[in-house]
Amino acid sequence: MSPTAAPLDPAEVSAIIQQNVHREGPLLPILHDIQTAFGCVPDAARAPIADALNITEAELHGVISFYHDFRSKPAGARVLKICRAEACQAMGANAMSEKVLTALGLGWHETTPDGAITVEPIYCLGLCACAPAAMIDGRVKGRVTAEALLAEVAP
After folding, report:
1. Which residues are annotated as a binding site?
2. What Gene3D superfamilies is this protein classified in (predicted)?
3. Rounded to whole angstroms, how far apart are CA atoms 137 and 140?
4. Residue 2 pLDDT > 60
5. Does domain 78-153 have CATH number 3.40.50.880?
6. Assessment of whether the complete model's pTM goes beyond 0.85
7. Is residue 120 within 8 Å of residue 109, measured between CB atoms?
């Protein structure tokens, strides 16, 4: 069972847009609120957002794809973010990441078929002195190993 987005309610999308459209810099608040409501930024919500802000869907896609926290599909029940910054790489994060991804049968930005775990890269958690670092469900952890991460997230 893979994760599914909440059903798209066009009236709710419109309400979210209207709540934010008059703000200075409304795009990011709209995207955050849409993702909160639906678990992601569904493709069907893009045209109304672009129309309301008088931007192209290409411009909107550029913003969504630039910010790593926006998703076009909902995340799994658990989200594992592994730091990819230089300090973590220097302390073995690349090899550790590969072990985790291989064990879960995933690539970056992918979710297990059962919807249990999503793995994402993150580019600095501020734990450089405790590298390599990861974040599991919003909790940061330092000096992590592949085995420790897998033990925590794998069923």
Report:
1. 83, 88, 124, 128
2. Glutaredoxin, NADH-quinone oxidoreductase subunit E
3. 8
4. no
5. no
6. no
7. yes
Nearest alpha-carbon partner for 82 in 109, 120, 138, 116: 120
Task: State both tokens at 10.
Answer: 């066009």
Angle (deg, nearest 10), helices 10-20 and 27-38 = 150
Please state whether beta strands 78-83 and 117-122 pair in parallel, antiparallel, or not at all (unpaired): parallel
The two structure tokens encoding residue 81 = 């973010």
CA–CA separation, 93 and 144 (whole Å): 9
Assign 76 to helix, strand or coil. coil
Residue type, 66: F
The predicted-structure confidence for 52-66, as pLDDT tens digits, reads as follows 999 999 999 999 999
Binding-site residue numbers for [2Fe-2S] cluster are 83, 88, 124, 128
Q: Name the residue with tokens 């909160």.
A: 36
